[in-house]
Amino acid sequence: MDPDKAYVNKLEGEIKERRAEIDELKANIQQAQAEAQLQYDDGIEQARENISEFKEASGDAWSDIKNGVMDAWSELANAANKAASKFKQK
């Protein structure tokens, strides 16, 4: 085989490999975005439930609800940070 032709074939093979890697990265990004969206949606729903309970609570119950809201908010922030770090890694 002609050396130039062999070199061109080698380069074409490397280009195909890079394209496959790019496609894999794109898939990872889409998956991370979907996971982040699900976590966000779950967190928002939990926060809404907590707010509804908060509105109905009184006295000692208010303290319990407040702690629950703060915990849910913390979990939502942690989930968002975790999803963002996965996105940055991929």
Molecular structure report:
By secondary structure, the chain is an all-alpha fold. It has one domain. Helix content is 93%, strand content 0%. The protein contains 2 helices and no strands. The radius of gyration is 24 Å and the shape is rod-shaped. It starts with a helix and ends with a helix. Keywords: Coiled coil.
Low-confidence stretches: none
Tally of contiguous helical segments: 2
Total beta strands:
0
What does the largest sheet look like?
Answer: none
Number of domains: 1
Approximate helicity band: over 70%
Mean pLDDT over the residues: 82
**Class by SSE composition:** mainly alpha
In angstroms, what is the radius of gyration? 24 Å
CA distance, first residue to last residue: 39 Å
What would you call the shape? rod-shaped
What is the subunit organization of this protein? single chain
The sequence of SSEs as H and E is HH
Keywords: Coiled coil
Features:
single chain; 2 helices; mainly alpha; 90 residues; coiled coil
Topology record:
Layout: H1 3-56, H2 60-89
Helix pairs in contact: 1-2
Q: What's this entry about, in short?
A:
This protein has helices at residues 3-56, 60-89. The protein has 90 residues and is mostly helical.
